């Protein structure tokens, strides 16, 4: 059901019935290591390239989510997924191997919630029985493509973020048990003329704020309706900007109830600059840590707001500012 | 309504109520020039780069589609779109300017029908009143990114295709008149181990065949149900391979009823090798030429099957084969 312009309410109880999460070596040493299904010690994961390692991450996350339910890929109607590598080849090649009818979703690091919103929409409206959805990213692949090969040892400012090596996938269905996806808000592109590609958190904060405030207004709930609002990968700087912007708009959220996946994933002594980022960041935290907390009833109503910076190395070199976007998905125990 | 594993039947009469199509200089001299709303004589379109020219194409197509209905962008719920440039910046920047809640769709040149399927699904299930959807491509931007800068004058084999400079957009709604979108089949990735990036038609033909045969089986209609089946951009070689493969499977389609957007767009004396291609190819033909023919009742039941090659320059240089995909959408006068 459409609420307002851009929010869907899901009445038919689509649930995340299974998940798969895979991480890399830095994630193995992080704060949420226990919440991963599979952790790799080596960044190459026995593959010949970082891009193929990323494909492996996505494939393994898919396999784990399906195997937990004792299902087969043939039982799944659609695979909705995307990543940050040019032309999304890791996802495309993973889709080649799982052979599930596939729609590629591309909203940078906001892809995880955009794709989860779609998956929930299809299941809610009987357009699918089972949808597999998720995202991945790989530190080496992303650094090589967007910045410099890591071997150069280029220095970074403290505003920059650390791309997560990991993939997180969820299986959405009405059949089975799990926390329910109750609503979603599709964001619009926001661009406040930030142009520093080494400070994406600041660029993305206004998109997160726009989507959160739209979501609360269209769903007609107070910010305290949720136990927790979790942004995708704003990092330290973006998180504090977003908190201030929300409070300026009269949305009085307690900072303990406003977290960021990029800040939850690593320990304070890990050298990840302003925090984690990448399309896999919100996916591994959502489908790993948060999904477990929802299943344990430690959390009961959460809003996940993955954020994406829609720039490219070319748009940055052509001196353009950074358009950003955020999509919100609410997950609740007990439904709407 | 879900039919089989991967086909949706639309019962609530979502329609393409308006379209906008924009083309470049080569398209101005083509066979379908009269079917464009706007044609540019210059490849730069007064922009400083090819990528920004592509953004302009998409923006203009959106504006035209909306203005024909005397609407505003604020009236539209969602914008579903994508393109071939890394990180889809032309589409992302167009979405920044139209400010419509945005989901980026990325299935290479199959994006046009993938996004139209989604748009129709949302309207059919009351998840949106108005959805704007379409794709664009730009010859200069794509050559520069995927092959060589055009200034080099690199030679190409006759199996290669010519990337269309153009954008096509449709406005989907139940409110208003226009041909109805009656069903859609989301394709799965097919890879028969082709690896020549200068012969994409041959690589994509099996994906088109897989989606067409699945569509006919799941919708339970004979191939002759349709007046015309139009593939996205298989070109001459892919078109003849697909025809033969369909006939081998016992799907007896007359070759006059099996066309390809890449072969419809240009005149035979234009030097476009095996035909047109690019994400804009199927979009300009669908939302221009075919939409007019449907409105005039010269055609009444068509199936559009846009095809995409999911490779990247990197995956090709890493010696990987070309995964491909196709999504089918049926458009009919008089509904289901």
Please give a structural write-up:
The structure is a homodimer of 336-residue chains. Chain A is an alpha/beta fold and 336 residues long. Helix content of chain A is 34%, strand content 22%. Chain A contains ten helices and 15 strands. Chain A has two domains: 172 residues, 3-Layer(aba) Sandwich (Peroxisomal Thiolase, Chain A, domain 1), CATH 3.40.47.40; 151 residues, Peroxisomal Thiolase, Chain A, domain 1 (3-Layer(aba) Sandwich), CATH 3.40.47. Chains A and B meet through helix 3, strand 6, helix 4 and helix 10 of A and helix 3, strand 6, helix 4 and helix 10 of B.
Major beta sheet, strand line-up of chain A? 1-2-10-15-14-11-12
Number of strands of chain A: 15
The CATH homologous superfamily of the largest domain in chain A is named Stage V sporulation protein AD
- What is the level-2 CATH architecture name of the largest domain in chain A? 3-Layer(aba) Sandwich
Q: What oligomeric state do these chains adopt?
A: homodimer
Number of helical segments with 4 or more residues of chain A: 10
| Largest protein-protein interface | A-B, 59 and 59 residues
| Element string of chain A (H = helix, E = strand) | EEEHEHEHEHEHEEEHEHEHEHEHE
Helix-and-strand structural type of chain A: alpha/beta
């Amino acid at each position: 059901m459409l609420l307002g312009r851009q929010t869907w309410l899901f009445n038919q109880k689509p649930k995340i019935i299974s998940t798969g999460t895979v991480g890399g070596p830095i994630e193995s040493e992080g704060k949420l290591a226990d919440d991963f299904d599979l952790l790799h010690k080596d960044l190459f994961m026995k593959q010949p390239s970082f891009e193929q390692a990323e494909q492996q991450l996505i494939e393994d996350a898919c396999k784990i989510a399906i195997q937990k339910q004792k299902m087969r890929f043939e039982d799944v109607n659609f695979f909705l997924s995307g990543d940050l590598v040019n032309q999304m080849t890791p996802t495309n090649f993973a889709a080649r191997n799982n052979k599930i009818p596939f729609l590629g979703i591309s909203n940078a690091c906001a892809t995880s919630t955009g794709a989860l919103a779609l998956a929930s929409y299809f299941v809610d409206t009987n357009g699918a029985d089972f949808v597999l959805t998720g995202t991945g990213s790989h530190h080496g692949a992303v650094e090589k493509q967007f910045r410099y090969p890591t071997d150069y040892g280029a220095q970074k400012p403290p505003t920059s973020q650390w791309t997560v090596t990991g993939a997180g996938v969820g299986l959405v269905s009405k059949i089975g048990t799990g926390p329910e996806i109750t609503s979603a808000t599709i964001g619009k592109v926001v661009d406040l003329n930030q142009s520093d590609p080494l400070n994406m958190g600041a660029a993305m904060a206004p998109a997160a704020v726009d989507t959160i405030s739209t979501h609360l207004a269209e769903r007609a709930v107070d910010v305290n309706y949720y136990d927790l609002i979790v942004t995708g990968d704003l990092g330290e700087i973006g998180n504090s900007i977003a908190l201030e912007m929300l409070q300026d708009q009269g949305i009085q959220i307690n900072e303990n109830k406003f977290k960021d996946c990029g800040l939850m994933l690593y320990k304070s002594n890990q050298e990840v600059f302003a925090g984690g980022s990448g399309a896999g960041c919100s996916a591994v935290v959502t489908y790993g840590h948060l999904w477990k907390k929802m299943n344990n009833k430690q959390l009961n109503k959460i809003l996940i707001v993955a954020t994406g910076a829609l720039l490219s190395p070319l748009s940055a070199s052509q001196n353009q500012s950074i358009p950003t976007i955020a999509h919100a998905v609410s997950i609740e125990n007990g439904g709407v």
